[in-house]
Protein backbone atom coordinates (compact mmCIF):
# COMPACT_ATOMS: atom_id res chain seq x y z
CA UNK A 1 0.00 0.00 0.00
CA UNK A 2 1.34 3.41 -0.96
CA UNK A 3 1.27 5.50 2.19
CA UNK A 4 2.21 8.59 0.24
CA UNK A 5 -1.03 8.60 -1.75
CA UNK A 6 -3.45 11.42 -1.30
CA UNK A 7 -7.03 10.49 -0.54
CA UNK A 8 -8.03 11.60 -4.02
CA UNK A 9 -5.44 9.29 -5.57
CA UNK A 10 -6.50 6.43 -3.30
CA UNK A 11 -10.18 6.77 -4.21
CA UNK A 12 -9.33 6.93 -7.91
CA UNK A 13 -7.78 3.46 -7.79
CA UNK A 14 -10.03 1.92 -5.15
CA UNK A 15 -11.87 -1.24 -6.23
CA UNK A 16 -15.44 -1.18 -4.83
CA UNK A 17 -15.85 -4.85 -5.73
CA UNK A 18 -13.19 -5.87 -3.24
CA UNK A 19 -15.89 -6.69 -0.69
CA UNK A 20 -19.30 -8.27 -1.15
CA UNK A 21 -22.08 -5.80 -0.63
CA UNK A 22 -25.40 -6.80 0.94
CA UNK A 23 -28.67 -5.33 -0.28
CA UNK A 24 -30.68 -3.11 2.06
CA UNK A 25 -34.42 -2.89 2.46
CA UNK A 26 -36.65 -0.47 4.34
CA UNK A 27 -39.64 -2.17 5.98
CA UNK A 28 -42.50 -0.16 7.44
CA UNK A 29 -44.81 -1.23 10.27
CA UNK A 30 -47.98 0.80 9.77
CA UNK A 31 -49.97 0.76 13.02
CA UNK A 32 -53.40 2.26 13.56
CA UNK A 33 -56.12 1.95 16.20
CA UNK A 34 -59.88 1.59 15.97
CA UNK A 35 -61.75 2.04 19.22
CA UNK A 36 -59.67 0.03 21.71
CA UNK A 37 -57.98 -2.29 19.21
CA UNK A 38 -54.57 -2.14 17.56
CA UNK A 39 -54.25 -2.89 13.84
CA UNK A 40 -51.27 -3.50 11.56
CA UNK A 41 -51.16 -3.19 7.77
CA UNK A 42 -49.87 -6.32 6.01
CA UNK A 43 -49.39 -7.23 2.36
CA UNK A 44 -49.68 -10.65 0.76
CA UNK A 45 -46.69 -11.39 -1.44
CA UNK A 46 -47.38 -11.99 -5.12
CA UNK A 47 -44.03 -13.59 -6.00
CA UNK A 48 -41.29 -15.80 -4.60
CA UNK A 49 -39.77 -15.98 -2.09
CA UNK A 50 -42.56 -16.58 0.40
CA UNK A 51 -45.19 -16.36 -2.31
CA UNK A 52 -48.71 -15.92 -0.86
CA UNK A 53 -47.40 -15.32 2.66
CA UNK A 54 -48.06 -12.09 4.49
CA UNK A 55 -45.36 -9.50 5.09
CA UNK A 56 -44.69 -5.98 6.28
CA UNK A 57 -44.80 -3.41 3.46
CA UNK A 58 -41.36 -2.37 2.24
CA UNK A 59 -38.81 -2.52 -0.50
CA UNK A 60 -35.20 -2.16 -1.53
CA UNK A 61 -33.25 1.03 -0.88
CA UNK A 62 -32.08 2.63 -4.11
CA UNK A 63 -28.45 3.60 -4.53
CA UNK A 64 -29.32 7.31 -4.49
CA UNK A 65 -31.58 7.45 -1.42
CA UNK A 66 -31.29 7.04 2.32
CA UNK A 67 -33.10 4.25 4.15
CA UNK A 68 -35.57 6.76 5.57
CA UNK A 69 -36.23 8.22 2.12
CA UNK A 70 -36.86 4.70 0.83
CA UNK A 71 -39.27 4.04 3.71
CA UNK A 72 -41.18 7.26 2.99
CA UNK A 73 -41.36 6.37 -0.71
CA UNK A 74 -42.48 2.79 -0.08
CA UNK A 75 -45.03 3.94 2.48
CA UNK A 76 -46.64 6.30 -0.01
CA UNK A 77 -46.53 3.75 -2.83
CA UNK A 78 -48.13 1.06 -0.67
CA UNK A 79 -50.58 3.11 1.42
CA UNK A 80 -50.90 6.64 -0.05
CA UNK A 81 -49.88 7.91 3.39
CA UNK A 82 -47.48 10.83 3.58
CA UNK A 83 -46.43 13.62 5.93
CA UNK A 84 -46.15 11.34 8.94
CA UNK A 85 -43.25 10.70 11.26
CA UNK A 86 -41.28 7.51 10.84
CA UNK A 87 -39.48 6.14 13.85
CA UNK A 88 -36.60 3.78 13.21
CA UNK A 89 -37.15 0.55 15.09
CA UNK A 90 -34.08 -1.61 14.53
CA UNK A 91 -31.70 -3.00 11.93
CA UNK A 92 -32.23 -6.69 11.24
CA UNK A 93 -29.14 -8.35 9.81
CA UNK A 94 -29.35 -12.07 10.42
CA UNK A 95 -27.26 -13.68 7.69
CA UNK A 96 -29.92 -16.08 6.40
CA UNK A 97 -33.00 -13.92 6.86
CA UNK A 98 -33.60 -13.77 3.09
CA UNK A 99 -33.20 -16.91 0.92
CA UNK A 100 -32.28 -14.89 -2.18
CA UNK A 101 -29.13 -13.19 -0.96
CA UNK A 102 -27.74 -11.23 1.95
CA UNK A 103 -30.34 -8.59 2.79
CA UNK A 104 -30.24 -6.20 5.72
CA UNK A 105 -33.55 -4.65 6.74
CA UNK A 106 -33.99 -1.32 8.48
CA UNK A 107 -37.46 -1.31 10.02
CA UNK A 108 -39.54 1.78 10.77
CA UNK A 109 -42.71 2.31 12.77
CA UNK A 110 -45.47 4.61 11.51
CA UNK A 111 -48.50 5.56 13.61
CA UNK A 112 -51.48 6.68 11.53
CA UNK A 113 -55.01 7.70 12.59
CA UNK A 114 -57.50 5.14 11.33
CA UNK A 115 -59.51 7.74 9.41
CA UNK A 116 -56.44 8.89 7.46
CA UNK A 117 -55.22 5.46 6.43
CA UNK A 118 -55.84 4.52 2.82
CA UNK A 119 -53.94 1.64 1.31
CA UNK A 120 -53.61 -0.38 -1.85
CA UNK A 121 -51.64 -3.36 -3.06
CA UNK A 122 -48.28 -2.46 -4.56
CA UNK A 123 -46.72 -4.00 -7.66
CA UNK A 124 -45.22 -6.92 -5.73
CA UNK A 125 -48.30 -7.63 -3.60
CA UNK A 126 -51.52 -9.46 -4.42
CA UNK A 127 -53.40 -8.11 -1.43
CA UNK A 128 -53.18 -5.55 1.35
CA UNK A 129 -55.20 -5.77 4.53
CA UNK A 130 -55.45 -4.47 8.07
CA UNK A 131 -55.07 -7.15 10.73
CA UNK A 132 -56.14 -6.92 14.33
CA UNK A 133 -53.12 -7.41 16.58
CA UNK A 134 -53.99 -9.89 19.32
CA UNK A 135 -50.92 -9.57 21.53
CA UNK A 136 -50.07 -11.30 24.79
CA UNK A 137 -48.26 -9.63 27.74
CA UNK A 138 -44.92 -10.99 26.44
CA UNK A 139 -45.69 -9.52 22.98
CA UNK A 140 -46.25 -12.93 21.39
CA UNK A 141 -49.13 -12.32 19.01
CA UNK A 142 -51.41 -13.44 16.24
CA UNK A 143 -52.95 -11.31 13.50
CA UNK A 144 -56.69 -11.59 12.90
CA UNK A 145 -58.75 -10.43 9.93
CA UNK A 146 -62.34 -10.87 8.83
CA UNK A 147 -62.80 -11.96 5.23
CA UNK A 148 -65.48 -10.84 2.82
CA UNK A 149 -67.44 -14.03 3.49
CA UNK A 150 -67.43 -13.23 7.23
CA UNK A 151 -64.93 -16.01 7.96
CA UNK A 152 -61.85 -15.20 10.04
CA UNK A 153 -58.21 -15.44 9.01
CA UNK A 154 -55.59 -15.87 11.72
CA UNK A 155 -51.91 -15.36 10.95
CA UNK A 156 -49.26 -16.90 13.16
CA UNK A 157 -45.49 -17.00 12.87
CA UNK A 158 -45.51 -19.75 10.23
CA UNK A 159 -47.77 -17.66 7.98
CA UNK A 160 -45.43 -14.66 7.79
CA UNK A 161 -42.56 -14.03 5.38
CA UNK A 162 -38.89 -13.66 6.28
CA UNK A 163 -38.30 -12.75 9.94
CA UNK A 164 -41.28 -10.43 10.06
CA UNK A 165 -42.78 -12.13 13.10
CA UNK A 166 -39.76 -11.06 15.15
CA UNK A 167 -39.88 -7.55 13.67
CA UNK A 168 -43.54 -7.13 14.59
CA UNK A 169 -42.95 -8.54 18.07
CA UNK A 170 -40.18 -6.02 18.67
CA UNK A 171 -42.41 -3.21 17.38
CA UNK A 172 -45.19 -4.15 19.81
CA UNK A 173 -42.70 -4.04 22.68
CA UNK A 174 -41.45 -0.65 21.48
CA UNK A 175 -44.95 0.81 21.36
CA UNK A 176 -45.79 -0.53 24.80
CA UNK A 177 -42.59 0.81 26.26
CA UNK A 178 -42.71 4.19 24.61
CA UNK A 179 -46.33 4.96 25.43
CA UNK A 180 -45.30 5.08 29.09
CA UNK A 181 -42.89 8.00 28.69
CA UNK A 182 -43.71 9.74 25.38
CA UNK A 183 -46.63 11.36 23.58
CA UNK A 184 -47.06 8.75 20.83
CA UNK A 185 -50.66 7.98 21.80
CA UNK A 186 -51.69 11.38 20.46
CA UNK A 187 -50.38 10.51 16.99
CA UNK A 188 -53.27 8.05 16.61
CA UNK A 189 -55.94 10.71 17.20
CA UNK A 190 -58.09 11.77 14.26
CA UNK A 191 -58.09 15.43 15.33
CA UNK A 192 -55.65 16.91 17.81
CA UNK A 193 -57.94 19.92 18.20
CA UNK A 194 -61.01 17.90 19.15
CA UNK A 195 -60.77 14.67 21.15
CA UNK A 196 -62.14 13.14 24.33
CA UNK A 197 -60.38 11.29 27.10
CA UNK A 198 -62.32 8.17 26.14
CA UNK A 199 -60.79 8.29 22.66
CA UNK A 200 -57.35 8.75 24.16
CA UNK A 201 -57.87 5.94 26.69
CA UNK A 202 -58.93 3.62 23.88
CA UNK A 203 -55.54 4.17 22.23
CA UNK A 204 -53.69 3.29 25.43
CA UNK A 205 -55.87 0.19 25.82
CA UNK A 206 -55.19 -0.84 22.21
CA UNK A 207 -51.42 -0.63 22.55
CA UNK A 208 -51.26 -2.24 25.97
CA UNK A 209 -53.81 -4.95 25.09
CA UNK A 210 -55.59 -4.34 28.37
CA UNK A 211 -58.16 -1.90 29.67
CA UNK A 212 -56.98 0.91 31.92
CA UNK A 213 -58.95 1.85 35.01
CA UNK A 214 -61.04 4.88 34.03
CA UNK A 215 -60.39 6.84 37.21
CA UNK A 216 -56.67 6.16 37.28
CA UNK A 217 -56.35 7.07 33.61
CA UNK A 218 -58.13 10.39 34.07
CA UNK A 219 -55.88 11.25 37.00
CA UNK A 220 -52.80 10.29 34.95
CA UNK A 221 -53.82 12.50 32.02
CA UNK A 222 -54.71 15.40 34.30
CA UNK A 223 -51.38 15.17 36.14
CA UNK A 224 -49.09 14.58 33.17
CA UNK A 225 -50.81 16.53 30.42
CA UNK A 226 -53.53 18.94 31.59
CA UNK A 227 -51.70 20.43 34.57
CA UNK A 228 -48.54 20.84 32.47
CA UNK A 229 -50.39 22.62 29.68
CA UNK A 230 -50.00 19.97 26.99
CA UNK A 231 -53.77 19.66 26.54
CA UNK A 232 -56.56 22.11 27.34
CA UNK A 233 -60.31 21.79 27.47
CA UNK A 234 -62.37 23.26 24.63
CA UNK A 235 -65.80 24.84 24.81
CA UNK A 236 -67.29 21.97 22.83
CA UNK A 237 -69.11 19.00 24.28
CA UNK A 238 -69.65 15.64 22.62
CA UNK A 239 -72.23 13.02 23.49
CA UNK A 240 -70.68 9.72 24.56
CA UNK A 241 -72.89 6.92 25.85
CA UNK A 242 -75.78 9.35 26.20
CA UNK A 243 -73.83 11.87 28.28
CA UNK A 244 -71.95 15.07 27.36
CA UNK A 245 -68.18 14.54 27.28
CA UNK A 246 -65.54 17.24 27.59
CA UNK A 247 -63.36 17.67 24.52
CA UNK A 248 -59.71 18.63 24.55
CA UNK A 249 -57.06 19.92 22.15
CA UNK A 250 -53.29 19.63 22.04
CA UNK A 251 -51.86 22.98 23.12
CA UNK A 252 -48.11 22.54 22.54
CA UNK A 253 -45.95 22.25 19.44
CA UNK A 254 -46.93 19.31 17.26
CA UNK A 255 -43.26 18.32 17.11
CA UNK A 256 -43.56 17.15 20.72
CA UNK A 257 -45.79 14.36 19.40
CA UNK A 258 -44.17 13.56 16.09
CA UNK A 259 -40.52 13.69 17.13
CA UNK A 260 -38.34 10.60 16.63
UniProtKB/TrEMBL annotation:
What the entry lists under Pfam families is as follows: NUDIX, WHD_NrtR
Q: Which residues cross the membrane?
A: none
Q: Which PROSITE patterns match?
A: NUDIX (PS51462)
**Where would I find the Nudix hydrolase domain in this sequence?**
21-157
PANTHER family assigned to the protein according to its UniProt record, in alphabetical order: ADP-RIBOSE PYROPHOSPHATASE (PTHR43736), SLR1690 PROTEIN (PTHR43736:SF4)
List the protein's name: 8-oxo-dGTP diphosphatase
Taxonomic source organism: Lachnobacterium bovis
